[in-house]
Amino acid sequence: MFNVRPVAIMLNVSYTYDNTIYMQHLAPQLEALGLGDYESQIYAALLEQSPMGAALIAKKCNLSRSSVYTTLSVLISKGFVGTTHRNEVKQFFAEDLSALQASLDAESKKITERKKILSGLESTIGQLRGMVSIPKITVFEGQEGLKKIYRSMLRESNPNETFHIMRDEFVWQPDWKFIFDKEWHVSIKAIRKEKNIATELLINDSTEEKKHSTYYKSRKGLSVKKMNKKDTLKNFALYILGDTASILSFEQNHLVGIQITNRTIADNMKKLFSVQWKMGKK
């Protein structure tokens, strides 16, 4: 007489298996190691219990059979899962963690090789830029445009450079008071300090600028000179830092400008600035 009852109970236990353990512990750890969502679930299930058929895996992981078969094929190709047969039914089992370790080692080797390629790429790009330097031109408008351009010039500059600025009195107008707000000032000061950027500022020899002489004297790393009266600027500003120059114009109280990134242009503008700087007075 066949004892069917115990077999039925055993099968029932398998299909009502509590997957909380591998779902909450194994699967997330495997996913953190680089396995996909389905891969981590199925591999964790097989680590908990092997071998298993695709139907049982689908039941435990709450996945469709098609998804299980597709994912098993990937895991087998990676060496994480092997196959066997039981009663002429294909079964799947988890290989030990040495396969996962080998995969991580291979990925680490690939990353090392890619870093070498990246290093060579940076050198190649640098050489190409030295050979052919096409100016990069950006048009900007308004306060937000100026903020974006100003920050980008500072962030993209090299350490220990000098920021050359020529401008009229626009910064003292009410519309531009944000320049002296604490939040803006602190963020800009932090970048300047990090990169040790000094500033040479050329301003108009005007009554308005004389009102702010105390402010200029209080700024660390700032050198200020006044231009000759015959060279007074109006509705204009020029910013030069590194290989970038930004030209600003104020049309009917609306700022428009262009930013040019090109070493040759920036260097020549610095020479023009230097002429004015030498003629300026403190």
CATH level-1 class of the largest domain:
Alpha Beta
Secondary-structure content class: alpha+beta
How many E strands? 9
What is the beta-strand fraction? 15-25%
What is the number of helices?
11
- Helix-residue proportion: 40-55%
| Largest sheet: number of strands, sense, barrel closure | 7 strands, mixed
The ordered string of helix (H) and strand (E) elements is: HHHHHEEHEHEHEHHEEEEH
Structural domain count: 2
Rough outline: elongated
* Poorly predicted regions: 1-17
CATH architecture of the largest domain: 2-Layer Sandwich
Radius of gyration, in Å, reads 34 Å
CATH homology group of the largest domain: Endonuclease Chain A
Mean pLDDT: 83
Spatially, the strands of the biggest sheet line up as 3-9-8-7-4-5-6
The CATH topology label of the largest domain is Endonuclease, Chain A
- Distance between the terminal alpha carbons, to the nearest Å? 113 Å
Q: Which key features would you list for this structure?
A:
282 residues, Arc Repressor Mutant, subunit A, two-stranded antiparallel ribbon, single chain, seven-stranded mixed sheet, disordered N terminus, 11 helices, alpha+beta, Endonuclease, Chain A, elongated, 52% helix
